Amino acid sequence: MRYEAGAAPVTSATTVMTGATLDGSDRAERTGRAHPGADTGHAGAGYVLRTATADDLGGARAVMLDTVYRDLKSGYVPRWHADIIDPEAAYLRPERCTLLVVEHRGEIVATGAVRDRGPQAPPNPQWVADRFPSGSTAQLCRIYVRPERRRHGLARQLVRELGEFAARAGGYTTLYLHTDPAVPGAEPFWRSLAREVCDERTLPGGGQGIVHFELPMPALGSTDTPPVK
Questions:
Q1: Extents of the domains making up the chain
Q2: Is the pLDDT of residue 41 over 50?
Q3: Residue 197's pLDDT is what?
Q4: Cα–Cα distance for residue pair 200/212, rounded to 1 Å
Q5: Which UniProt keywords apply (predicted)?
Q6: Does the structure show a pLDDT above 60 at 222?
Q7: Which of 6, 59, 196, 211 is spaced 20 to 30 Å from 180 by Cα?
């Protein structure tokens, strides 16, 4: 990306899957190359998905920075990536935000987050910003998986858990994300889960070249990612 859920109150310290390992129940039935945030297959024993703590921030930051340099090709840009440098302020402190990590044998190998703001205009089209206002929009972001851990269903499981967090948090009416289709596998992965709202490549001048998506808000207690309508 080029710039970068009523139940009891949910905070960023709420554990999503304490002590659990991911399994084959989230197998992604699709093909195509993997990328940060595009997984297929299933995870074996030893993967633990949970809410990040302060002790996880160094590992999470490393996954994010490696991704923006290696896969997104933008490198660190302060106005786009300030949340990567200070994920505690961006995701752990705000009550309706969260950062999830996947740990494997003591190493953070994947990340995913919810932020409580929608896309801003500019640089996004004004009508997209109006459709997804901050406060009522849960934006999924930083869904990144280390290359050697891709094709294990981690990204799909992160999306599922982030959506359920947004539903439990209350006050969110929509789930939004954007992706850079120049990254191999990004576009088909998100199209398998979400509905396209705006493909900026079709705008005059090509816009930023990104694609905006909306995902269905899961029902509380749901165990599966809702189907795209």
A1: 24-215
A2: no
A3: 98
A4: 8
A5: Transferase
A6: no
A7: 59
